[in-house]
Amino acid sequence: MARNTALYFRLVEGKNLPAKDVSGTSDPYCIVKVDNEVVARTATVWRDLNPFWGEEFTLHLPLGFHTLSFYVMDEDTIGHDDVIGKISLTKEFIASHPRGIDSWVNLGRVDPDEEVQGEIYLELHIMQDQYRSTLHCHVLEARDLAPRDISGTSDPFVRIFCNNQTLETSVIKRTRFPRWNEVLEFDLRGIEELDPSDQMISIEVWDWDMVGKNDFLGRVWFPIEPLHKSPAVTSWFRLLPFGNTDEENGGKLGSLRIKVSLSEERILPSLYYQTLIQLLVESVQSPDQGDCNLLALLEEICSAESRQEVAVKLVKIFLGQGLAVTFLDKLNQREVKRTVDPNTLFRSNSLASKSMEQYMKIVGMPFLHEILRPIISKIFEEKRYIELDPCKIDLNRSRRISFKGSMSEHHILESSLETLRGYLSDIIDAILRSVEQCPSGMRLCFKQLHKRVEEQFPGAVYQDVKYAAISGFLFLRFFAPAILTPKLFHLREHHADPRTARTLLLIAKAVQSIGNLGQQLGYGKEQWMAPLHPFIQQSVGRLRDFLDRLIDMESETVEQIEKMNKAHKGLQRSFSKCGQISRTLFHPSVTIKEGFLHKRKAEAVNLVTRFTFKKRYFWLSSQTLSYSKSPDWQVRSSIPVHRICAVERVDENAFQHPNMMQIISQDSETQGGHIMYIQCKNVNELNQWLSALRKVSLCNQRLLPTYHPGAYRNAHWTCCLQTDRTVRGCSRTHLAVTLGDWSDPLDPDAEAQVLYRHLLLSKDVLRDKYLENSLNAEKAECKGHSEKGFAGMAVSSPARCLLFAIEDLERAHQAFEKREREDTPIHSHCT
């Protein structure tokens, strides 16, 4: 059985941010930290106090977390970036909103005493004799302390208060991983006479400074009374802040609109999800039952807010079952049959629309990148000033694009029209030539959709409806959104600047018009788009021919394509490693990630120069991590994935370089490990590579529990200052902390568990709506379904069988939870 904590967050936008630049604006971006570790960075929005980011992330944290923080920064080209403000949300606060948080939150001031991190390792016990009681506090070590000095380290020492006595450890210089191994003793005589709130031991960690006051690094505290009743308490304790005493700033620092949700899943063994999976499989394999079908039931009971995640999980479950195309056909058939006006077909955010969107993203994202990336990159690089709306033309901007002074409005319109036609021609030509590149699964879905629409709306009068249904998905829900916001579809690393964003908006509008088969041309307020109408009309004619060729695939069967999709996404195998890890394998032939990085071997010279880092092109598959001088270089070096022991971040002070990671591998013949240091160009690239490498090596046999965040230089580790090169690591590894991604392989158990969670929230709705009067009478009929198999359930109502499947899973979770409580020892210490 595995545990999975998935933290989803979306940074939507900001408003009323304070100006940090002399121009009266700011260049804001956001940094996201989980327990003081940077996990994401948004793109910078230049010269804007009301920025829009729209960036979303899903982080998998098997060991949980304590705090999620958002920092809004102002980027400066010279000097350090300015901190505008922050928002911190505790895990408990997020968990108290089971349907997620979606609201505006005011930014607060950043208090250095609140920016604490790390843990301290202590042993506490009380020695008693006939004369006195003595508290022995053995301060062993600390790890992952906050860096307070310019070198990226600290000079930590510990100060302990107990029974009106104060003692301190020695100062350990230049480290975030100090080892003191000192015992401090406190006489407890008379402590019972103190106020109960003072009958405790307070342990504070400080950074010693030669000049100025010392910096606070965190604290823990314990009541003395429980220590009298227990043996020695030895453990790692999380360092906590003093406590925020700031008053509400009233929004003076601006605010962020954020979406956050937390799901803590106990992934049961596969056997427990078979009833739910089998019900879903039967729902797409059985003859159509109209509104009594289980898929119709799912759409009705799931809230609009949860429909997208439900669609994602259903698509992945059916991909794993080799039934995704059949599932989508079932949904689309139902959607088409209940549509009266063909103009409203698939215009709502129904389960069918959401599922088709998610299927295209999962299966078709490489196709999208292949088609659009070269053209989008060209648009970003050229940064042309383009405008068709006379009301928005800025003649002053034209001075920067012409050596002949200001251009007239007429010349700007003509130049813009010519450039737009060129970009659009490149995009449309690339799309219309892409029949063979389009994934077979998408083509088959469109072919079946074409057939369903033609059956529902026959005749020449509805000739365009069957084309519009396909182009609505392919152009309006796939290509146009990617053109409008390429950052959100991983086509670019940064958001477009205002000039490029306007160009992309105009192109996306034209692509939408083509996808609508030109039906809206001449209507609406944007009559200034009229000069593009001839090009749009011409493209519509070519589009129909393209769609005919796209769905012309007589040679392939549904079964062949489903098998191919299933293999492409990976085969799921679940087994237990210490009862905690569920394995998901990538298909061996798939290149999971590739790109240029800078590498350095640990065995290189001690002197760190820019020449010790070599630029290499890397490829990652499920079997090897390979690299060479360039993508076309014939000679490649490689590391077998099964030999990877850890993939971790590197402290910035180790090489004075940011965004670094290390890959620790081990040969079967040797005891020691080999370390390769990798530098990425930004924190997002770093997290993506960390995540991809951890996913493929998650279940390797010799994963390390600890590692050194620093480097071994000048005969010692820069992190913990230990001189033995082979000494045990000073920090915990993050074996399964990964980012969710559209390219993740399938894990049907995890997908089924999330689907169950959404259904559990709707259990009362399901019962009240369908079973209020007949549940007691019918329950006996289905009670023996586990002995009789699913044949007895097939004749039962989908609502009843789904409700029983939910209740069975609920009882299984309760049983496992009870077992865990009984097996977990209760500790009397607290922090």
Automatic annotation (TrEMBL):
SMART domains per record? BTK, C2, PH, RasGAP
Task: Give the InterPro entries listed for this entry.
Answer: C2_dom, C2_domain_sf, PH-like_dom_sf, PH_domain, Ras_GTPase, RASAL_RasGAP, RasGAP_CS, RasGAP_dom
Cross-referenced PROSITE patterns: C2 (PS50004), PH_DOMAIN (PS50003), RAS_GTPASE_ACTIV_1 (PS00509), RAS_GTPASE_ACTIV_2 (PS50018), ZF_BTK (PS51113)
One of the GO BP terms on file: negative regulation of Ras protein signal transduction
Which keywords label this protein?
GTPase activation, Metal-binding, Repeat, Zinc, Zinc-finger
**Which residues are in the C2 domain?**
1-105, 116-237
The PH domain covers 590-698
Q: What is this protein's name? A: RAS protein activator-like 1 (GAP1 like)
